[in-house]
Design a protein that fits this description.
3 strands, 560 residues, mainly alpha
């Protein structure tokens, strides 16, 4: 039955990133039944990619026992770090060693790391460096980066910065993207080497090309051909190269320069791309575009009709006298042009200028008109401002109902802070009638916009506060919360749910797993009597009734 279920799952997810066709999976299953280690390993990879982790583990284990070294490395990785099985460092070390001895360079690097850091064994720098060098001998170019880092920091090896740079360069020349990025940073900032703008850009571009090749179906020869054509004035090639460089902050300026050249040659796609990516101009200074060059880019884009560029020019003329002589008239001109083109951010900014009266004579009516204009065009910040003004009676007459109306509109448009404010107002009954259901609604919206943790939302589901009690949703929220940070309180709550069978079948092993994870961070006390187990800390106290047999089992497991 389990095999049938797996087969069904495989068919359902056949569109997945692993890109296995129905016929190929069926072929792998047939070979796996015959004891084909490679087929078992590939099925393990498929299940791992699709998050069918227990099945992946079984396939890797079978393949590893049949001698597949790549499966050994994956099996070791699961024993070492995966969350669905209790870590077993003894077995992890065993399989990493077997894989490394079989020639798997990833396992060699892991052994190097384990022994040099003393992570799960007694520290042995000699043994660790031995495995790093073995991986290097087999062509694992990234090892040069590890060794360079050791020499740079005097960690495990005597500090030697000149040798460190040589090793970084060697790894970078072997197309190690991380080493290329590091060299770009070092030449940009003058770390270990003298500052060199050209070399920094060179290595950043190499890193971009490597990443582009990895993520797209380009070869290095195709990129070289694009460069040749672009050098000969081919606008389409310039546009393609612009795509290559513009997605990565460290070569963004190069990308926009290529778009600009292509646009000047009449390439419509490049012109549109310049508009689409305008906000990235703001980051050009981080990849060494000078302020006066940046200003010229803004002006070019503004004159081509880009309202975001107009906004930027307005800001520069107002605040950046280090770039251009301050000119409030010019600043207001560009803000107004952006407003005429419907730019809601410009409406809000110009509204502020009238509101605060620091460039123009204060004009509250003009300010509120601009805020209303932006709010009606969907600008959530303007909607939030209107809510505040009605709440406090600023410019307009105080009106709580109108304030709440605008808060709700802003929150629906994704303004997370406003959703948080509505949650607090409804949960406490301030300015509105207290309502748990409304509080829950805005809490959920606030969580979705990153203002609150999923733990609080899980508590609402768990307690049935403002929403029907739903243990399954509570558990989902708690697990989502743990993706962002390891919170022992949340782990504790999950342990209780598995112990009580709340939203899931009773599972003492899973309960113990979460309690143990929490114990690594803070202390939980456990007491027993004949019929109950008490688990508590300073914040929680829970009494769970269990049979004597289960208490005995749990005691035994916790001792282990």
């Amino acid at each position: 039955m389990k095999k049938i279920l797996l087969f069904v799952v495989i068919v359902i997810v056949s569109f997945s990133s692993y890109s296995q066709s129905y016929s190929h999976i069926k072929e792998l299953e047939t070979k796996a039944k015959e004891g084909d280690a490679q087929a078992l390993y590939e099925l393990g990879n498929f299940c791992y990619e699709e998050d069918i982790l227990s099945k992946a583990f079984k396939y890797y284990k079978k393949a590893a026992k049949l001698g597949n070294v790549d499966a050994m490395a994956q099996l070791a990785r699961i024993y070492f770090e995966e969350y669905y099985i209790k870590p077993n460092y003894r077995k992890a070390l065993k399989w990493y060693r077997k894989a490394a001895e079989g020639g798997n360079t990833e396992a060699m690097i892991m052994l190097g790391s384990i022994y040099t850091t003393g992570l799960i064994v007694e520290q042995d720098t000699v043994e660790g460096l031995k495995w790093y060098r073995k991986a290097l001998e087999l062509g694992e170019v990234g090892v040069n980066r590890f060794l360079a880092s050791f020499y740079e920091n005097g960690m495990f090896l005597k500090r030697d910065t000149s040798l460190a740079i040589k090793l970084y360069i060697k790894a970078a020349e072997q197309e190690d993207e991380k080493s290329q990025l590091r060299l770009g940073d070092y030449y940009k900032k003058g770390i270990l080497v003298e500052k060199d703008h050209d070399k920094a850009v060179y290595w950043y571009k190499k890193a971009s090309e490597n990443k582009f090749i990895f993520q797209n179906s380009y070869s290095r020869s195709q990129i070289e051909e694009l460069k040749r054509k672009a050098g000969e004035g081919d606008a389409s090639a310039m546009y393609e190269l612009g795509n290559l460089y513009s997605d990565y902050w460290y070569t963004m300026c190069e990308g926009f320069k290529l778009y600009k050249k292509a646009a000047e040659l009449g390439n419509e796609s490049a012109k549109q791309r310049m508009y689409d990516f305008f906000h990235k101009y703001k980051q050009c200074s981080s990849c060494m575009l000078k302020d006066d060059e940046l200003f010229n880019w803004y002006r070019d884009a503004a004159e081509l009709g880009n309202s975001d560029a107009m906004m930027a020019l307005g800001y520069i003329y107002m605040y950046r006298d280090d770039v251009v002589e301050r000119d409030t008239t010019e600043s207001l001109k560009w803000y107004r042009k952006a407003v005429e083109l419907g730019n809601t951010e410009a409406m809000v900014k110009l509204g502020e200028i009238y509101d605060y009266g620091f460039l123009l004579k204060g004009d509250s009516l003009e300010a509120i008109r601009l805020y209303f204009q932006a709010a009606e065009c969907g600008n959530a910040d303007a909607q939030y401002r209107l809510g505040n003004y009605y709440m406090k009676g600023i410019i307009v007459e105080k009106n709580y109902a109108e304030a709440i109306k605008w808060y709700k509109i802003a929150a629906e448009n994704g303004h997370g802070f406003t959703a948080e404010r509505l949650f607090r107002l409804y949960s406490e009954g301030v300015y509105v009638e207290q309502s748990d259901s409304e509080a829950f609604k805005w809490l959920k919206k606030s969580v979705e916009n990153g203002r609150f943790s999923y733990e609080l939302l899980g508590d609402y589901y768990y307690q049935g506060n403002g929403v029907e009690k739903n243990y399954a949703e509570a558990m989902k929220c708690y697990k989502e919360d743990l993706k962002n940070h390891k919170d022992p309180n949340v782990m504790y709550k999950l342990g209780i749910m598995y112990m009580n069978g709340e939203g899931v079948e009773v599972d003492y092993n899973e309960a113990l797993k979460w309690f143990n994870e929490a114990l690594e961070i803070f202390s939980i006390n456990v007491m027993y009597d004949d019929d109950y187990i008490f688990i508590y800390d300073d914040n929680y106290k829970t009494k769970v009734k269990m049979t004597k047999k289960k208490i005995k089992e749990l005691k035994k497991k916790m001792k282990e």
